[in-house]
Specification:
The chain is mainly alpha-helical. Helix content is about 65%, strand content about 10%.
């Protein structure tokens, strides 16, 4: 299922969501420009669970151990990875930003990304695979949208073999199905170290649950 738009218009311009999209895009273009230096750049700024755990066990808390939690949120592994994440943020971020206000939404986004990283590291403490992408933080936005706008409808593209169907799906169903897919995919991945990379399913689960947990404390009540 590929979401194309929702049915709830923004009440104001989503400057934080657009800025996050712009920053992610600029950082990715910089990644592309690095050529052979990309590998070392990713090693320095991606989240590697085994490295983080090793630093905490040997040296206790160190700022350099947690910096990748935030820097990794703005890195992506390819055009499809970037476009997919930014599409979800564009569709669902504006309405959540409306409900929270700009400053709260930015903090909420970063906290959700942190919750996503925490569960990913907890579930894969020995993984040496670099983790990049905004999907954990964006999953938090989806969790917030799930509770704030369950009756909204999402225009969704369904590719069925050689046919393409466009269907409006209730947000409660669309996001609920998305979350279950992440959860069961994560459950099947337990104990399996992906070769050459993979999807951080538990980061998605952690971000979504963090978003659901914090949406109402962060919501701006008028």
């Amino acid at each position: 299922m590929i979401p194309l738009r929702d049915t709830i218009p923004s009440r104001s311009f989503p400057i934080v969501s657009v800025t996050i999209i712009a920053v992610n895009t600029v950082v990715f273009l910089y990644e592309v420009s690095l050529g052979r230096g990309l590998s070392s750049f990713i090693d320095r700024h991606a989240l590697v669970p085994a490295s983080m755990v090793s630093i905490f066990e040997d040296q206790g808390f160190r700022v350099r151990a947690v910096v990748p939690v935030f820097s990794s949120m703005f890195l992506h592994g390819g055009w499809i990875h970037l476009i997919g994440n930014m599409l979800y943020l564009w569709i669902f971020g504006d309405n959540v930003e409306d409900k929270m206000g700009r400053a709260r939404f930015l903090l909420f986004y970063l906290v959700c990304g942190t919750g996503a990283a925490a569960l990913h590291v907890y579930m894969s403490p020995t993984s040496g695979t670099p983790t990049v992408g905004a999907s954990g933080a964006i999953a938090g936005v989806l969790g917030a949208y799930f509770l704030l706008f369950p009756r909204a409808r999402v225009l969704t593209l369904f590719p069925i073999f050689f046919f393409i169907q466009f269907v409006e799906v209730p947000a409660f169903f669309f996001l609920g199905f998305w979350f279950l897919m992440q959860f069961f995919s994560g459950a099947l991945s337990i104990g399996v170290e992906p070769s050459g990379g993979g999807v951080a399913w538990w980061a998605h689960v952690g971000g979504f649950v963090t978003g659901m947990t914090l949406v109402f404390p962060f919501r701006k009540y008028r």
